[in-house]
């Protein structure tokens, strides 16, 4: 293929070298002539393992050319990869100056081109940038339409400095956010040979996914470091602890706990977080990330309360009360807390939970209920239909296709639904009920 690459920093330079190595004709574009001169001389503009040898080889292959002319690059290629920088501005926002200027230049070049062209943004961009900001600019300057005359998409990169070539050849996956099949097909032809999954998604999801990955990496590093600080104060080997944590691939290193839903609760997580942060205080340690988890969790609960109060409805039906589906444990259940707050606001509650039976609650679980919801017996109903029939608003706190189907079959068109879990048949459920799912 004929490919133009805009921006010859780490991502752009490595992509140029690897794509030309794989037999593609590549045009490198940058505003810094010094970078272009280095590449023409067979030298690398970035310090990266393996790049010296690779750039020497591809520079003499006849497949690499460089220019400062965006129009020439677009007219001479079929796919453009946009890899310009998007650094932080002084206020923390994203400085999109370079990509905005480039969008106008690409649009002007597309105006002169009759063949379909695929523009692939690889620069990290705030979600919505491609569709809401860059597309109008390109359409305005080209006089053409995305999805008809050219195709915009977003493909996040996962190249780590220091191992970029290895990461290029063996990525964790290839993500392509595209609104049209043609763009996805062209990128699959370009990158489909890599030994990983090729995943297609929406442009916005692909943009957000890049931020999510980097934030998660920062979170993991901070978690390990805060754990190490506490371990050091307690005389525990932090490396031994974290190595043991990573041995668990069923829960710790897995998809478990990484699905959006309601606030967490139960008899373990809240109390152990409190104990950890208190222990840190006794050793004069600050663990801001761990200390911020419970307040963040509380905000999730506050959002649910605000949404319910904003409806102005008084009769609220709870489908679920325990801290998670499949248990009768009500200790520190966020649904119990939400119910307490609503009762305090004068709301009339009815509750259905197939696992919660007052007569069988024992020990700490029973004590918790008696303290926090002493009148729960009057609110608990034995049948789901009774709760649905008497409610103006339904709060879904149970997960599972079966319960969702039952509620969807019983609910009325005039009822509001606040879905606090990710229901497997959520789209079907929302089609049948006026939803406030979030």
UniProtKB/TrEMBL annotation:
Pathway: Nucleotide-sugar biosynthesis; UDP-alpha-D-glucuronate biosynthesis; UDP-alpha-D-glucuronate from UDP-alpha-D-glucose: step 1/1. This is UDP-glucose 6-dehydrogenase. Residues 317-426 form the UDP-glucose/GDP-mannose dehydrogenase C-terminal domain. PANTHER family: GDP-MANNOSE 6-DEHYDROGENASE, UDP-GLUCOSE 6-DEHYDROGENASE TUAD. Keywords: NAD, Oxidoreductase. It is an enzyme of class 1 (oxidoreductase). PROSITE patterns: PROKAR_LIPOPROTEIN. Gene3D superfamilies: 1.20.5.170, NAD(P)-binding Rossmann-like Domain. The active site is at residue 268. NAD(+) binds at residues 30, 35, 86, 124, 161, 271, 331.
């Amino acid at each position: 293929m004929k490919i133009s690459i805009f921006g010859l920093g780490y991502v752009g330079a490595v992509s140029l070298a690897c794509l030309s190595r794989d037999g593609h004709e590549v045009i490198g574009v940058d505003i810094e002539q010094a970078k272009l001169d280095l590449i023409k001389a067979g030298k690398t503009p970035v310090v990266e393992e393996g790049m010296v040898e690779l750039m020497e080889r591809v520079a003499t292959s006849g497949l690499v050319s460089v220019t400062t002319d965006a129009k020439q690059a677009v007219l001479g290629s079929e796919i453009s990869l946009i890899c310009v920088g998007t650094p932080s501005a002084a206020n923390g926002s994203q400085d999109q100056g370079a990509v905005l200027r480039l969008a106008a230049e690409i649009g002007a070049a597309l105006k002169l081109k009759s063949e379909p062209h695929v523009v692939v943004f690889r620069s990290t961009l705030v979600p919505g940038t491609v569709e809401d900001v860059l597309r109008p600019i390109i359409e305005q300057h080209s006089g053409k339409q995305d999805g008809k005359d050219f195709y915009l998409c977003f493909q996040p990169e996962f190249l780590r400095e220091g191992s970029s070539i290895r990461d290029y050849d063996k990525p964790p996956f290839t993500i392509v956010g595209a609104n049209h099949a043609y763009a996805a097909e062209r990128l699959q032809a370009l990158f489909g040979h890599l030994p990983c999954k090729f995943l297609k998604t929406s442009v916005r999801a692909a943009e957000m996914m890049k931020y999510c990955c980097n934030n998660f990496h920062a979170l993991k590093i901070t978690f390990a470091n805060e754990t190490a600080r506490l371990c050091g104060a307690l005389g525990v080997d932090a490396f031994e602890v974290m190595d043991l944590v990573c041995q668990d691939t069923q829960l710790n290193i897995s998809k478990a706990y990484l699905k959006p839903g309601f606030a967490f609760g139960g008899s373990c997580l809240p109390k152990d977080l409190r104990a950890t942060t208190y222990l840190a205080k006794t050793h004069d340690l600050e663990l801001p990330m761990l200390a911020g988890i419970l307040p963040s969790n509380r905000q999730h609960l506050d959002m649910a309360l605000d949404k319910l109060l904003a409806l102005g409805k008084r009769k609220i039906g709870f489908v679920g009360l325990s801290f998670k589906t499949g248990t009768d444990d009500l200790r520190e259940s966020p649904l119990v807390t939400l119910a307490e707050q609503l009762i305090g606001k004068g709301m009339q509650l009815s509750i259905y939970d197939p696992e919660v039976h007052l007569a069988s609650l024992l020990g700490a679980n029973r004590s918790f209920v008696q303290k926090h919801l002493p009148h729960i017996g009057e609110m608990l109903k034995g049948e789901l239909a009774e709760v649905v029939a008497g409610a103006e608003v339904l709060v879904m706190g149970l997960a599972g296709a079966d319960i969702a189907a039952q509620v969807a079959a019983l609910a009325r068109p005039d009822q509001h639904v606040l879905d606090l879990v990710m229901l497997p048949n959520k789209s079907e459920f929302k089609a049948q009920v006026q939803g406030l799912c979030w």
